[in-house]
Amino acid sequence: MTNRYALKLGTAISTGALMLGLLAPAAYAAELEISGNGTSSNNNITVTETTTANLTQKNKTSVNMTLNATANTGNNSANNNTGGNTTIDTGNATANVLVVVTGGSNEATLNDCGCPESTDSALISGNGDSSSNNITKTKTKTANKKQKTKTKVKGSAKAKAKTGNNDASGNTNGTTDVLTGNGNATVDLTVEGGTNTLNP
């Protein structure tokens, strides 16, 4: 059985946990025999075999984040120029925040109960006339399977783009131009929960 987890995130922090337990008894062999008993005797062998397998998988992804992205081409000054043209050209400002969080995943294969088969032999022979002879065997197999995933994301993400707040004043004997570019700010957050797969 395997446990797989994958986590992709920008500048966040992730923790993953896995607990996996499998309990199964060792295989054994028993020789069951009823023989050599007297006439009209009552002879019985009863065997009860119980096997249990426990499978537990847990996966937890926890992200606490604080993201800030700022792009600024503004706050420019061109003041008190004389005898020529004055131009402020800020250009574009772009701030993008992209966060992708993928929760952990569990995968396990547990056929039946995952228990080995016992190899028993049974023999009834040589008993007296009118005797009653019985060998009874009961098998019980139990498989307890539990898978759990949890994905938690908490925090803030901010993006800011600025091209304005430019100052061109007090200029003489020429033209004054203030050209501001485009400001573009985006925040993209994707959270994908984990998956549980239990193969037959």
Automatic annotation (TrEMBL):
Residues 125-137 have a biased composition (Low complexity). It comes from the Bacteria. Residues 138-161 have a biased composition (Basic residues). The keyword Signal applies. Residues 124-200 are annotated as: Disordered. Residues 1-29 form the signal peptide. Residues 164-200 have a biased composition (Polar residues). Keywords: Signal. This is Uncharacterized protein. It comes from Candidatus Daviesbacteria bacterium GW2011_GWB1_36_5. The lineage of its organism: Bacteria, Candidatus Daviesiibacteriota.
